[in-house]
């Protein structure tokens, strides 16, 4: 069963990690896919090639999500190449780990611009295209378990992920009358480039995994299914919701 047959999906930050897994997962479920990326040309090209190997159309559009012009450009070029926007996945994000008391201003502001401002611009541009099309749509934002809990070296990052979650709640209200659903996924600790250095110590990785009821850290592919579900008509009455995808980490207080 292909849950996204005939749909066009746009995903930010999709040359690697969760975004790439979601892009390929969407293609496996019948979608044509446009990916946004910032630096890795070869990785973006290989993602497009994997999608095309599944018999779907794909394009990669380079751009920095912190620039408002990038959002309009990404949506316009996706529509030009693929015809429309049915699903938008806001995934692009950064987390340069740093202590709170001496947080560099530029580190804080860059994290805000990419993770929160970029999400706002991108979601707004995609939503406007969906409204013009007049057939509804689905928006899924990759927030984080960090929207719900703190992190000593993430004082700049956790507020952005809480903001993305809040954005989806408010956008669900603003866009419901247009038939556009807005939801979040909240990943736990997923092994990606964002935390590769932080989890390079085997002892720390083992300690983190031991806290998770399912007994392992997450992988990018663990997010593909939940994102496809929220984007699909199986979730046609789900909006303003947040789905934890964390192996049970959040509930493991005791």
TrEMBL record:
InterPro entries, alphabetized: KR_dom, NAD(P)-bd_dom_sf, SDR_fam
Q: Where are the transmembrane segments?
A: none
Q: State the UniProt keywords alphabetically.
A: NADP, Oxidoreductase, Rhamnose metabolism
UniProt protein name: L-rhamnose 1-dehydrogenase (NAD(P)(+))
Q: Which GO terms describe its biological process?
A: fatty acid biosynthetic process; rhamnose catabolic process
- Domain of life of the native organism: Bacteria
State the similarity comment: Belongs to the short-chain dehydrogenases/reductases (SDR) family.
Q: Its pathway? A: Carbohydrate degradation; L-rhamnose degradation
Residues forming the Ketoreductase domain are 7-194
Respond yes or no to whether keyword Oxidoreductase is given for this record: yes
Report the Pfam families cross-referenced here.
Answer: adh_short_C2
Q: Which reaction does it catalyse?
A: L-rhamnofuranose + NAD(+) = L-rhamnono-1,4-lactone + NADH + H(+); L-rhamnofuranose + NADP(+) = L-rhamnono-1,4-lactone + NADPH + H(+)
Q: Name one GO molecular function term.
A: oxidoreductase activity, acting on the CH-OH group of donors, NAD or NADP as acceptor
* EC identifiers of the protein: 1.1.1.378
Q: Is Oxidoreductase found in the keyword set?
A: yes
């Amino acid at each position: 069963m292909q849950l996204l047959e005939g749909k066009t999906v746009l995903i930010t930050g999709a040359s690697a990690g969760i975004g790439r897994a979601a892009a390929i997962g969407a293609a496996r479920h019948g979608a044509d896919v446009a990916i946004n990326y910032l630096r890795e040309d070869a990785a973006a090209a290989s993602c497009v090639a994997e999608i095309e190997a599944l018999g779907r159309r794909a394009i990669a559009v380079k751009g920095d999500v912190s620039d408002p012009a990038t959002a309009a450009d990404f949506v316009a070029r996706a529509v030009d190449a693929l015809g429309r926007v049915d699903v938008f996945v806001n995934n692009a994000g950064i987390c340069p780990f740093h202590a709170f008391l001496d947080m560099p201003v530029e580190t804080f502001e860059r994290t805000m611009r990419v993770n929160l401002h970029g999400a706002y611009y991108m979601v707004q541009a995609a939503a406007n295209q969906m409204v013009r099309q007049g057939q509804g749509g689905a928006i899924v934002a990759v927030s984080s378990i960090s929207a719900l809990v703190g992190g000593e070296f993430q004082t700049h990052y956790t507020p952005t992920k809480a903001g993305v979650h809040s954005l989806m709640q408010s956008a669900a209200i603003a866009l419901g009358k247009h038939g556009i659903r807005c939801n979040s996924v909240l990943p736990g600790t997923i092994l990606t480039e964002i935390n590769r250095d932080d989890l390079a110590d085997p002892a720390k990785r083992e300690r983190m995994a031991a806290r998770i009821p399912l007994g392992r850290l997450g992988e990018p592919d663990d997010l593909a299914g939940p994102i496809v579900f929220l984007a699909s008509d199986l979730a046609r009455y789900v909006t303003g919701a947040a789905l934890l995808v964390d192996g049970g980490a959040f509930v493991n207080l005791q």
